[in-house]
Amino acid sequence: MDLIKVAEQAFLVEKTHPEFKAGDTVTVAYRIIEGSKERVQEFRGDVIKIVGHENKKRFTVRKISSNIGVERIFPLDSPFIESITVNKRGKVRRAKLYYLRALTGKKARIKERRV
């Protein structure tokens, strides 16, 4: 009986990520494999939405790269995510921030939430 519990514990090596919501600015360090090489690429942007439940959550991060909006979807339980760093807490009033896609410049800014 103890052997089964030890085996289950070995497979349950979950990474703990910080709590974040839509509107927060995060940096996702993502491991990329190109051929035989492996590197870590950081993707910094605003969290547009979080969907899913329990351990199958996915979150979308949006950034502006040379005046073009780039969005990327990350599964929260992905083994390729090295770390998630919350840079700024955003003050927003809704869970899905699709309206940011139509905004550019200073209008697309999110106010910072004071703790």
UniProtKB/TrEMBL annotation:
Example of a GO biological process term: translation
Q: Which UniProt keywords apply?
A: Ribonucleoprotein, Ribosomal protein
Single GO cellular component term: cytosolic large ribosomal subunit
UniProt cross-references to SUPFAM superfamilies, sorted A to Z: Translation proteins SH3-like domain
* Pfam families xref list: Ribosomal_L19
Q: Name one GO molecular function term.
A: structural constituent of ribosome
Q: Which family does it belong to?
A: Belongs to the bacterial ribosomal protein bL19 family.
Name the HAMAP family on file: Ribosomal_bL19
Tell me, in a sentence or two, what this protein's role is.
Answer: This protein is located at the 30S-50S ribosomal subunit interface and may play a role in the structure and function of the aminoacyl-tRNA binding site.
What is the name of the protein in this document?
A: Large ribosomal subunit protein bL19
- What organism, scientifically named, is this protein from? Paludibacter propionicigenes (strain DSM 17365 / JCM 13257 / WB4)
